[in-house]
Please model this.
Amino acid sequence: MERRGTLLVLSGPSGSGKGTILKEYTDKHGEVYVSVSATTRDPREGERYGVSYYYMTDEEFKAKIEEGGFLEYAYFCDHYYGTPRKQVEERLAEGVDVVLEIDVQGAFSVRENCPEAVLVFTAPPSYEVLKERLINRGTESRDVIKKRLAMAVEEMKEAHKYDYIIINDEIEAAAKQLESVFAAEKCKADNNEDFINEFLEGVHDNDVIS
Amino acid sequence: MERRGTLLVLSGPSGSGKGTILKEYTDKHGEVYVSVSATTRDPREGERYGVSYYYMTDEEFKAKIEEGGFLEYAYFCDHYYGTPRKQVEERLAEGVDVVLEIDVQGAFSVRENCPEAVLVFTAPPSYEVLKERLINRGTESRDVIKKRLAMAVEEMKEAHKYDYIIINDEIEAAAKQLESVFAAEKCKADNNEDFINEFLEGVHDNDVIS
Model:
């Protein structure tokens, strides 16, 4: 019985620890495929094609939009960003689990395109903690922090539309929750219809018991 | 933030290993409350009041039905069996997780009475394996085994109505799946509305950042 992989979308405010949770998870689960986005912006120093992003020209990106080649895409700060559909579909068909680390609008687009997608929102434990985390990074100006906080609040207002919320109080516990979500999703009755059918097809005359 | 416990219903055919999975789980999670059923049948040797069952007279049982004192109940082989509502409700309110090990019909009754209940079905990996397990027990007659197999098939036909299916190939893996279901359920967005509201209530003027 070949099973499709699970498509899991991970979103969450800056400072919610989304990336760290995912890293903790993938360190333990090397078999999962973390989707690489496409973009029309230029590579920055240290970035690599196919690892950081797939870099494209505007024309290439637009053509790919036309042919339905993105699971979701967005345009901001003069550049396109999107999730290439083909790689994701291929992995899922092979039974590989796929994670998309994308923003809230992207998550809802993916849900429209792939209703079976599992939407997971990572949340900081409280507004106070989020503020502390952003301040303690020490890398951003007061204005940037204020913007990130305001954006976090807007994102938190969308969190109830997700399937799951992981409250990131402590990173190991949060990664374990992500693991549980994957495991539980595979147990969902809807994802085991083939198993039930195969079981029932295997039923034969009881008289063979001797 | 006081959270309600999770109400989890566990059903599955004889030979699916339901009881063994639950024991493996409760050995590790002593905090979970496994509901004790009430019955009007007589105690058997070695059974204890409040551990094996709560023993009741027919009159007591019927009075309790009248007052809505059961989450589910059934009558078979001349006796009543039921899940007392009070103990379950109290534990859930205290934030304790509760497991009901009951049959398929009971599971659907509980779902009607408590729509938040999580229904988990334990399944043998195949009909062949189930047959082997029942035969290898060596304790039952051929007729009893045939009856159990026929009943298992009927129960498997209802499995798709459950929320989750745990395929019991290997006991430790199956118990771990039960653990994942509990953990994932606690992450469900629907079960975290209070958290989101508290987060948003904690938002205040960003000007305090200095």
Notes: The two ends of chain A are 30 Å apart (CA to CA). The mean pLDDT of chain A is 94.
